[in-house]
Write a structure and sequence with these properties.
The complex is a heterotrimer of chains A (282), B (521) and C (343).
Chain A lengths: L17 H23 L31 H36 L2 H16 L2 H12 L3 H28 L2 H8 L4 H38 L10 H8 L8 H28 L6
Chain B lengths: L4 H13 L1 H16 L4 E6 L14 H10 L4 E3 L5 E3 L2 E6 L5 E6 L13 H14 L10 E6 L4 E6 L6 H4 L8 H6 L7 H6 L7 E7 L2 E6 L13 E6 L3 H10 L4 E2 L4 H7 L5 E5 L4 E7 L9 H10 L2 H7 L29 H10 L6 E6 L4 H15 L4 E6 L2 H8 L8 E7 L5 H9 L14 H11 L4 H18 L2 E7 L2 E5 L27
Parallel strand pairs in B: 1-10, 1-11, 14-15, 14-16
Antiparallel strand pairs in B: 2-3, 4-5, 5-7, 6-7, 8-9, 9-10, 11-18, 12-18, 13-16, 13-17
Chain C lengths: L1 H30 L4 H6 L5 H10 L6 H13 L13 H36 L4 H14 L3 H15 L22 H7 L3 H38 L5 H5 L4 H38 L5 H10 L3 H29 L14
Classes of the chains: A mainly alpha (282), B alpha+beta (521), C mainly alpha (343).
């Protein structure tokens, strides 16, 4: 066979294109902003000033003011920690649940595997947003409820993917060798199989952050997530939609912030995916 | 939307009778479409869950039932009681019974005459079911029927206020209700059917539209009133504003103030304002917790930016509050308007020994203005060192909490309506000891109780008025309620089609607004 | 028949899923703070009424018995009663479901019409400018918050440019007789072209809001799958014969890529029901989503949970149908891998 198939192509070294570097840079900047945002935002983003309500964007208020006379730009900056970190927290939480489920399914007896995977299948079939909405309603509306609800509904896909990878890793020669050397099952799992399976998740995480951010904002928009005066972006849109007709910037700005984040992470996921599977290369 | 059996039934009919049924239905709809000229479309928010007149304490229901049914009495422009279904009425000297004579020739929509039996049925049913409007007539005892047109309503205790409360008790056709009594005292049937004698009769409930047509059985001439009224549910404010601008609707209700301002100058649209039947404000829990201390309540009252709230949130329409009772009610003393005084507030708090106070305010997130009012209070209270948590609550859940005085929320943001023009009704239900469910503060002051009880037994209106003023003065000083603003009533309507629905009319809270078409030149 | 067995396996799985959901909903009902009977009886209920409601709902029985009763009630189609309207949740949902279905159908049609040609062209001209640009567009389209997109489209098309109606389902007086609950279909059945176009005008913006992420996902999967087939061994003889790229894409790659795409479309259409919660309220449309959103706004927890159950059932059924179609399209199918990731 003389044809070189794309899948057989040698893995490229880490020389990144300008486009990829841009995406990495934007993602890093977003993280940085989330980290320092609440520190650099002035304190009066929580203080009502009824003399300055609904000002359009200007040199003084770059993105205008909201119905309480608060500066929208600085609220977005301060809210970036809430929005991004809450999203990341959700992804971390459900990844942990997913890992536990996958590990138990791999290590445990066959009936545990069977049971956990059936539960996973059930979880995969349910509409995540709708079930989260139900859970958050029961827990009472707050950002914490939203986070818990999404963590409880998000794990099945992670568990499913991890279990498949773990099974495959278990069949690798080095695992077999370790087992012959008398390494305990638990130790084997924690020290060798789990770390070796994680690289599959890293690609997934970028996409998950993008996706979860949209759902979390959606929960706040319906009113079961973050509550006023929180500058969480979904809650800001929810609060501003009523007066959109006379102050569209108050809706457009937080939405644009969500889009920038979600797109950045989606592009990052796309890049990582292509790097793992070059046949998708454009 | 709630009447699922209709479309399904239609589906079956169409399946069986095919083209015949289709064309019949089509004909029905085109008659309606062609009559836009004689139709007035009123668009408000909130679902109409039932058209059972017992639920007329609920605004969306009352909007319709007040037109499809008739009460015994109503009001004239000067807020005096006048007969509606009753042509004559006489309160007994002991104020414990009222003798009525029914209007001659009053008929229900099915043509049967309105009789004493129907009135007795209606009042007895309300007493049996003890829900909705039952709260207005809780001292009803029984009805003594003399003949078809004469009867006496007896009360469990004397009250000069009972008569006025009858303006929201709509008389039901007892024959129809009994024929459809079901297992729930006809509640299910009346929810979607009409057994009234009002000027309009229920024609159809179609998704978000409820259509009522002029009833020829009504004792008055239609005159320039529209042939049909359509009540259309649109929850969002902006769409109603735009529909009004292009003439798709004729009257818009529940429109945000800023949207009203933006259409006020459009050709063909007019926005008019009337007296305020509503006071927006905060009920404190006056019986337990930190808010049981009047100094804490007064401190919070002094911390709020009332002018900013009225100007920034309500666009300056309405009025700054003076006293706990809405503007539309008579007998209000001249209270000074509370102005923001942070130093005074802090002094009161330290006097009460409350530093680092944390309080919780409940509000209804469905109302955008409440979210804004609450957010502003949260910001204002920070200035006097009080942390305010905001907790959303839905009205049904709030009502449920009120049932148990131990569960009354610490602070609750509400728009409080006056439904009857006698201040006594408002004051006794809101501030009398033990008025469970409506005394939203758990407020109790024996002095106030005594004054109000005296007023209830006082037949002379002027003397009553003086007593009300005394009670209000005590209540204002105790501050169980923090009024934020008086919301003026308004009408946003197509002035190229309709006459001004506020001018020369009784406030819409007390009596349904009469929509009258402009005369064609 | 192999696939009859697979379908019956799939059916069993669906039943298990629904049972799992029912259990979840039951647990949530039990977790709601407050007395269930008091809430169900309504705010004004007397202690006697509350007691009788508790008896009727079987709340005086042990929890296991209550759970079984709950499952039995579900089997009878009893999804509970709304506290606010005192009506059965199922009745209310059945009345508004067609409106949601109408929206989802139009959205999937638009999404498919956009995604398929784009993916085919992108795969044919792989690595060219069109491919790169469409990929970024697709990523962006998939990362739009639906409710925000809805608000922005409504504002600019409806309020500013006044091209489309702002909200609602049809204009005054052009409502056709309500036969199916879908305004467009009703108008067509009545032969009313004006009514049809009117209803379509109201439908088009919300449909686009759903179609954009739908198209983005379908595009990405179809493109990836087309490229996968093109790179596989089975294309070697075709390539050796010197077939053009476009011919390879259309004749060979496309048929082989349809299966995962149909499966994904099933998942996405199911997901739209969830998205409807956010979008239908913005456009003030009747529907399952706006019912849920309303119930949430009114804190009508029982209605919310009833509707969650309903939507869960609907989504499971859509997935089941998509899987059955996949099975029928593909007689070669082996094993139990019917599912393509939703995310």
């Amino acid at each position: 066979m003389t044809l070189v198939l794309p899948t057989a192509a040698p893995r490229r070294k880490a020389n990144f294109t300008a486009y990829e570097l841009t995406v990495f840079g934007v993602v890093a900047a977003l993280f940085l902003l989330a980290l320092i945002g609440p520190m650099i935002a002035p304190a009066d983003i929580y203080t009502s000033n009824m003399l300055e309500t609904l000002f359009p964007p200007s040199a003084e208020h770059w993105l205008g003011t909201d119905d309480q006379g608060r500066d929208i730009f600085w609220r977005l900056v301060a809210g970036s920690r809430l929005s991004l970190f809450a999203t990341v927290l959700v992804v971390i939480l459900y990844s942990i649940i997913g890992m536990i489920v996958a590990t138990l399914a791999t290590v445990g007896p066959r009936w545990v595997d069977e049971l956990l995977m059936r539960i996973t299948d059930i979880g995969l079939s349910l509409p995540g947003l709708v079930v989260s909405l139900g859970i958050a309603t029961v827990l009472g509306p707050s950002l914490q409820s939203g986070i818990i609800a999404l963590a409880l509904t998000g794990w099945p896909m992670t568990a499913r993917i991890l279990r498949t990878t773990m099974r495959r890793t278990m069949e690798q020669p080095f695992v077999e060798g370790a087992r012959i050397l008398g390494v305990s099952r638990t130790r084997l799992m924690l020290k060798h199989v789990l770390p070796n399976s994680l690289d599959v998740l890293i690609v997934k995480w970028a996409g998950d952050i993008s996706f979860t951010m949209l759902i979390l904002a959606g929960l706040s928009f319906i009113g079961v997530g973050a509550q006023p005066p929180s500058p969480e972006w979904g809650a800001m849109i929810s609060g501003a939609r009523g007066y959109m007709s006379i102050a569209w910037w108050a809706v457009a700005a937080p939405g644009a912030a969500i889009v920038i984040n979600a797109v950045a992470f989606a592009l990052l996921a796309d890049i990582l995916q292509v790097r793992r599977d070059p046949s998708l290369q454009a | 939307m709630q009447y699922a059996h209709r479309p399904m039934a239609r589906l079956r009919i169409a399946g069986l009778a095919g083209v015949v049924a289709l064309s019949a239905l089509l004909a029905g709809s085109s008659v309606f479409a062609a009559d836009r000229v004689n139709t007035v479309i009123v668009s408000g928010a909130g679902s109409v869950n039932t058209l059972d007149p017992i639920a007329s304490n609920y605004f969306q229901t009352n909007d319709l039932t007040s037109r499809t049914y008739s009460p015994l009495i109503t009001y004239d422009v000067d807020l005096n009681v006048v007969g509606d279904l009753a042509s004559e009425y006489k309160v007994a000297d002991d104020a414990q019974s009222i003798a009525f004579t029914l209007r001659d020739g009053a008929k229900f929509h099915d043509g049967t005459p309105v009789t004493s039996k129907d009135v007795a049925y209606t009042l007895d049913r309300i007493k049996r079911l003890a829900t909705g409007v039952a709260a207005y007539v809780d001292i009803y005892d029984s009805t003594e029927v003399t003949d078809d047109r004469h009867f006496t309503v007896k009360l469990t205790k004397p009250s000069a206020l009972f008569l006025t409360s009858l303006s929201r008790i709509y008389i039901i056709n007892s024959g129809l209700a009994e024929a459809n009594v079901g297992s729930d005292d006809a509640q299910a049937w009346l929810a979607a059917n009409d057994a009234g004698s009002g000027p309009y009769k229920l024609t159809s409930i179609n998704g978000n539209d409820v259509i009522i047509d002029w009833a020829d059985t009504y004792w008055l001439d239609r005159g320039d009133r529209p042939m049909s009224l359509v009540f259309r549910r649109v929850d969002e404010s902006a769409p109603k504003r735009d529909e009004l601008r292009i003439g798709n609707i004729d009257v818009g209700k529940n429109i945000q103030q800023r949207d009203l301002d933006s259409i006020a100058n459009e050709p063909g649209v007019t926005v008019v304002y009337g007296s305020a039947p509503t006071v927006h404000g905060i009920y404190f829990n006056a019986s337990t917790g930190p808010t049981a201390d009047p100094r804490v309540r007064k401190a919070i009252r002094l911390a709020y930016d009332y002018e900013g709230a009225l100007a920034g949130i309500h666009r300056g329409k309405g009025a700054l509050p003076s006293g706990p009772m809405p503007d539309a009610l008579p007998c209000k003393p001249d209270f000074p308007i509370v102005a923001r005084d942070l130093d005074g507030a802090k002094a009161l708090l330290s006097d009460a020994g409350r530093s680092n106070l944390t309080l919780t305010l409940r509000f209804q997130p469905a109302f955008e203005e409440q979210v804004q009012q609450a957010t502003l209070l949260q910001s204002n209270l920070k200035d006097i060192g009080v942390t305010l948590n905001l907790e959303p609550i839905a009205f049904p859940n709030y009502l449920q909490m009120l049932q148990d005085p131990a569960q009354i929320p610490q602070m609750m943001l509400l728009g409080e309506n006056s439904l009857f023009p006698d201040p006594g009704v408002f004051l006794t239900k809101t501030f009398m000891t033990g008025a469970t469910g409506t005394n939203r503060s758990g407020y109790s002051n024996p002095k106030v109780d005594e004054i109000l009880n005296t007023a209830i037994g006082t037949a002379d209106a002027d003397a009553r008025c003086e007593l009300y003023k005394q009670a209000e003065t005590i209540i204002e000083d105790d501050s169980p309620f923090m009024p934020i603003w008086y919301a003026g009533s308004y009408a946003a309507y197509r002035s190229d089609r309709l006459a001004n629905p506020i001018e020369g009319q009784v406030n819409g809270n007390f009596k349904p607004l009469d929509y009258v078409l402009l005369k064609k030149e | 028949m192999a696939y009859l067995r697979l379908i019956s396996q799939r059916l069993v799985m669906t039943v298990l899923t629904l049972w799992g959901l029912a259990t979840l909903v039951f647990v949530m009902i039990k977790l709601i703070p407050g007395d269930e009977a008091q809430v169900a009886a309504g705010p004004g209920a007397s202690p006697e009424q509350v007691a009788s409601v508790a008896k009727r709902l079987g709340l005086d029985m042990p929890v296991v018995q209550q759970y079984l009763n709950f499952l039995l009630r579900l089997l009878r189609g009893d999804l509970g009663t709304s506290v606010v309207s005192s009506k059965p949740v199922l009745t209310e949902l059945a009345a508004v479901l067609p409106s949601t279905i109408e929206l989802m159908i139009l959205a999937s049609i638009i999404g498919t019409l956009v995604a398929f040609p784009m993916a085919l062209v992108a795969a044919t001209y792989r690595g060219k400018a069109f491919d790169g640009i469409t990929r970024i567009i697709a990523v962006t389209g998939g990362a739009m918050p639906a409710f925000w997109l809805a608000l922005m489209l409504q504002f600019f098309f409806g309020n500013v440019w006044r091209i489309t109606p702002i909200s609602g389902q049809h204009s005054f007086g052009i409502s056709s007789p309500n036969l199916t609950g879908m305004p467009t279909l009703d108008a067509l059945l009545a032969g009313d072209m004006v009514g049809f176009l009117d209803a379509m005008a109201y439908l088009i913006l919300p449909a686009f809001v759903f179609a954009i992420p739908f198209a983005a996902q379908v595009f990405r999967l179809l493109r990836a799958s087309l490229l996968g087939v093109l790179a596989s061994d089975m294309m070697l003889p075709v390539r050796a014969k010197g077939a053009s790229t476009s011919r390879m894409v259309l004749r060979h790659a496309l048929p082989n890529s349809l299966l995962p795409t149909v499966s994904l479309m099933g998942v996405l259409i199911g997901g739209m029901v969830g998205g409807a919660i956010l979008v239908e309220t913005v456009f003030a449309r009747r529907g399952v989503g706006s019912f849920l959103a309303n119930s949430v706004a009114l804190k009508d927890t029982y209605a919310v949970l009833g509707a969650v159950m309903f939507v869960g059932i609907a989504v499971c059924l859509v997935n089941l149908v998509a899987d059955v179609i996949t099975l029928m399209l593909d007689p070669r199918i082996r094993g139990a891998q019917f599912r393509v990731g939703a995310k």
